[in-house]
Write a structure and sequence with these properties.
- The radius of gyration is 28 Å and the shape is globular.
- The chain has 31 helices and 15 strands.
- Among the domains are: 51 residues, no CATH class; 216 residues, 3-Layer(aba) Sandwich (Rossmann fold), CATH 3.40.50; 95 residues, no CATH class; 96 residues, no CATH class.
- It is α/β, with parallel strands linked by helices.
- Keywords: ATP-binding, Cell membrane, Cytoplasm, Immunity, Innate immunity, Leucine-rich repeat, Lipoprotein, Membrane, Nucleotide-binding, Palmitate, Repeat.
- It comes from Pardalotus punctatus (spotted pardalote).
- It holds the Pfam family NLRC4_HD2.
- GO terms for molecular function: ATP binding.
Length: 672
């Protein structure tokens, strides 16, 4: 109706003559023209029978609409496997961000919640931009969140391809998919130039700017945007032809000062999504990870020619609860599956001493890098390449990429452009090597070339490798890139500095980096990468001191935080598991009473996430005092089935537990 109201008399005549729904359209036009109420019955029939089926790109030239469809269809290309994408056809409907999503690293979010979102409502993809009920209106601002590697960009591609085929969103005339990594290449833009530069075939953007044709603007990857969005201080702009800073343009579009009639869909990692004030978001959805069946199907697809190998990889993943949780994320499942397959294929060729069963995250990524360095890739026949030759040709590239990865991590930068590569001394000609293509993804943009690491954790592992190597000879703080700082000598000093930085970081974005840095000190990882990226038995004497640094992070009388749990995970990576094993054994024998010191409480909080003892039920009967219960409170949130009987709790503890049950993050389903 909004479109028809804007028709001139001449256009209305064309509609009457051309439309396959001529009779109903004539009735609508007559009613709008005030030609009597006799047409109202036909109008009602028209509304009911053809609500979203009216072929009305009336106000935009038909050839332009057709060109846009063809452009999107060609850009979609192939590569979208229907079976693998079934998970993306239903999104979780969530009510804002939880505390853990706003404050924690993506990996920590998945580990803490065990990959199980605490929501039950879902919405099918075809209804993502429709009203939830007959009395509500379509959402103007929709935000879809998901951790790194879960498939946000794939979801956008799936939606655009499905829409271009006419299978969903038939009331939408224009879908305009944009990425923030493309927007990073501009300093200033107007709303009009934004459309014309991204979609040159849209020669008359007026119908979009005026809201005459229903438009969906997709902004993919807010977490990759170079400038934080500042809604408090953004300059108001209502002129679609005025060029302003790109971040101001985005805030004005989201606020509705520009493209008021367009629907806007933003995708983002959870922490970055908090930049958008909740009052402006009409609908928030979340992409769920793999279920058990989907994980199996994904691995079967990876190893199409070897189902036995697929089965062995899946068996290995399921045997490691912590790894199984992480593999609910497709990006991590692919890395882990590739590494384990490489281990399985090579373990029979080597002696028992030369192989390490990958159990920690650092060991998984060590196999991944070893596979990449040797050229022994799953999609290619095995190449006979000597270790020395591979190490000599690749070490320099890994070192350069590692420096880029480390300082990118400190600046929260995950997308790089050719100028970034040159400034870090990376030879662009080397970026076509097989090693580079396994670590980096390359995307040709309209005005430049963008690079990003194939997953956030690849960047973090490379950053840890760089820091590990540079710390041996650095005399200044590596976290200060300019080199101006108090002298810091010795690897242990730099290791301690990294741990302190991670503990102090409010956004927790160094947690996995420090975990990998700890893992590089383990004998198992050193054995895997010696001669490739590490020197054999280096830092052997430092390992015990590094363990002491990590254990001091646990000795606190305050509440057990995710920082303490991450320190326990660092100890696991370094393969020092004495504390965790002792507490786990006490849990099995139900003899925890009297042994829950601050360090053991941290170990218990860690075990709540990873131990099979807590898989069906978390039994903390007859072992908790008020202070211990209070310190563990933030970690008990995520236990589904919790036994706390025979602890002689009084009213103060009951009040604490009552407050926990009302927290949005709380996943407790059964409490004794």
């Amino acid at each position: 109706l909004r479109r028809l109201e804007l028709l001139t008399a001449e256009e209305a005549a064309q509609v009457r003559a051309a439309s396959p729904l001529a009779e109903q359209v004539r009735a609508v036009v007559d009613v709008l023209a005030g030609k009597g109420s006799h047409a109202s019955q036909s109008l009602q029939s028209f509304i009911e029978t053809s609500n979203s089926q009216l072929p009305v790109p009336f106000l935009c030239a038909e050839p332009m609409v057709q060109k846009h469809l063809e452009s999107l269809q060609s850009s979609c290309g192939n590569g979208l496997e229907a079976g693998a994408l079934r998970r993306l056809t239903n999104l979780l409907l969530v009510e804002g961000l939880t505390d853990i999503q706003q404050k924690e690293h993506d990996i920590v979010q998945v580990e803490t919640t065990k990959g199980l979102p605490n929501v039950s409502k879902s919405i099918p993809l075809e209804k993502l931009f429709l009203p939830l009920s007959k009395v509500s209106i379509p959402p103007r601002i929709s935000v879809t969140i998901g951790v790194a590697g879960i498939g946000k960009s794939t979801l956008v591609k799936l939606f655009v391809c499905t829409w271009a085929k006419g299978e969903i969103g038939r009331d939408i005339v224009f879908v305009l998919p944009l990425t923030f990594r493309e927007l990073n290449t501009y300093e200033k833009l107007s709303a009009e130039r934004l459309i014309c530069s991204a979609f040159p075939h849209i020669t008359e953007p007026g119908c979009i700017l005026a809201g005459a044709a229903r438009t969906l603007l997709i902004l993919d990857g807010l977490d990759e945007f170079k400038t934080p969005l500042d809604f408090s201080n953004a300059v108001v702009c209502t002129d679609p032809k005025k060029e302003i800073q790109v971040d101001n343009l985005i805030t004005n579009i989201i606020r509705g000062n520009l493209l008021q009639e367009a629907s806007v869909w933003v995708t983002s990692r959870p922490a970055a999504a908090r930049q958008i004030p909740s009052g402006l978001v009409d609908r928030m959805t979340e992409i769920r990870g793999f279920g058990a069946v989907e994980m199996k199907d994904f691995l079967d697809q990876m190893f199409l020619d070897d189902r036995d190998l697929s089965s062995q990889v899946l068996q290995h993943i399921r045997a490691n609860r912590s790894l199984c949780v992480l593999c609910t994320i497709p990006g991590l499942c692919w890395i882990s599956g590739s590494s384990i397959a490489y281990y399985l294929k090579n373990s029979t060729d080597q002696s028992q001493e030369a192989t390490v069963v990958p159990r920690t995250l650092s060991e998984i990524y060590s196999y991944y890098f070893k596979m990449a360095l040797s050229g022994d890739w799953l999609e290619k026949p095995r190449e006979s390449l000597r270790i020395e030759q591979a190490a000599n040709t690749s070490r320099k590239l890994v070192g350069s990429l590692g420096r880029l990865a480390f300082y990118g991590l400190l600046r929260k930068k995950h997308v790089f452009y050719e100028q970034d590569m040159k400034s870090y001394g990376i030879d662009l000609s080397l970026l076509h090597s097989s090693l580079s293509t396994r670590l980096l993804l390359k995307e040709e943009l309209q005005t430049s070339t963008a690079y990003c690491f194939s997953h956030l954790t690849i960047q973090e592992f490379l950053a840890a490798l760089y820091y590990h190597t540079a710390a041996k000879r650095a005399i200044f703080d590596l976290f200060t890139e300019s080199g101006m700082s108090w002298p810091k000598l010795g690897f242990l000093t730099h290791f301690r500095s990294a741990v302190q930085r991670a503990l102090q970081a409010e956004d927790r974005q160094l947690d996995i980096f420090v975990r990998f840095l700890s893992g590089l000190l383990s004998p198992q990882v050193n054995g895997l990468l010696a001669g490739w990226l590490l020197v054999k038995d280096e830092h052997g004497g430092v390992r015990d001191q590094a363990i002491g640094v990590l254990q001091r992070c646990l000795s606190s009388d305050h509440a057990v935080s995710s920082r303490a749990v991450n320190a326990m995970r660092c100890l696991h990576e370094i393969r020092h598991t004495d504390v965790a094993r002792a507490v786990e054994e006490a849990m099995r024998s139900e003899s925890l009473a009297g042994m829950l010191s601050p360090m053991n409480c941290s170990a218990l909080a860690y075990l709540l996430q990873v131990s099979d003892v807590c898989l069906e039920e978390t039994n903390l009967s007859n072992c908790l005092t008020y202070n211990v219960c209070k310190s563990l409170l933030s970690q008990l949130l995520f236990c589904h089935n919790l036994r706390l009987d025979n602890n002689q709790f009084k009213d103060d503890v009951m009040e604490l537990l009552g407050s926990v049950l009302s927290v949005k993050d709380c996943q407790i389903q059964r409490l004794r």
